[in-house]
Amino acid sequence: NKAVQQFISRMREKYDSKIPVPGERFSYVVSHPENTFDLHGRKLMPTKGEKMEFADVAKELGKELDLYHYFEKTIIGLCAQFIIYNKKYKPEPSSQIMRIEDPDKKYKQIDDYAQNKAKSWLKGF
After folding, report:
1. Are residues 40 and 91 in the same domain?
2. What's the structural domain count of the chain?
3. Which SUPFAM superfamilies does the record cross-reference, listed alphabetically (predicted)?
4. Whole-angstrom distance, CA of residue 99 vs CA of residue 23
5. What range defines the domain where residue 93 resides?
6. Distances (CA, A) of 24 to 2, 27, 48
7. Given 22, 41, 61, which residue is the final one in a domain?
8. Is there a single domain that holds both residue 53 and residue 92?
9. What whole-number distance in Å separates Cα of residue 18 and Cα of residue 118?
10. Are residues 37 and 73 in the same domain?
11. Residues 118, 84: contact at Cβ < 8 Å?
12. Rounded CA gap, 100 and 51, in Å?
């Protein structure tokens, strides 16, 4: 996982004793970045790996959680699961998805399409 690798390499500089053994589980949170703009006034777009912190370290330092990350990744996905069964989130009968012969591939494509459509509606709500 790219984000985890980036996080571990960043943490290795600060907390070498806390670095988990590869394959070992660890607790982390996604926190707000310390800087939102660079020296030239441009907005920074930090990756998940740059915003990850060990849970206990974030608590000690009083770091604020990035609630938008959790909202976008968790709550919207859960809500989308409930509303995708509405007909307006289904692909049109004439769409490419409906022409797929393999029923497993077709179902997966329909589900992905409905999820994306429902998520975009929820984000605009």
Report:
1. no
2. 2
3. DNA/RNA polymerases
4. 42
5. 67-124
6. 16, 10, 20
7. 61
8. no
9. 40
10. no
11. yes
12. 40
Q: Do 55 and 10 form a contact (C-beta atoms < 8 A)?
A: no
Give the global pTM: 0.63
Q: Are residues 32 and 74 in the same domain?
A: no
Q: So what's the pLDDT on residue 30?
A: 94
Task: Give me the amino acid identity at 54.
Answer: F
Helix (H, G, I), strand (E, B) or coil at 65: strand
Q: Where are the beta strands (DSSP E) in the chain?
A: 28-30, 52-54
CB distance 52 to 3 below 8 Å: yes
Q: How does residue 65 score in pLDDT terms, banded at 50, 70 and 90? A: very high
Question: Per-residue confidence at 18, pLDDT binned at 50, 70, 90?
Answer: confident
Rounded-to-integer distance, Cα 95 and Cα 113, Å: 11
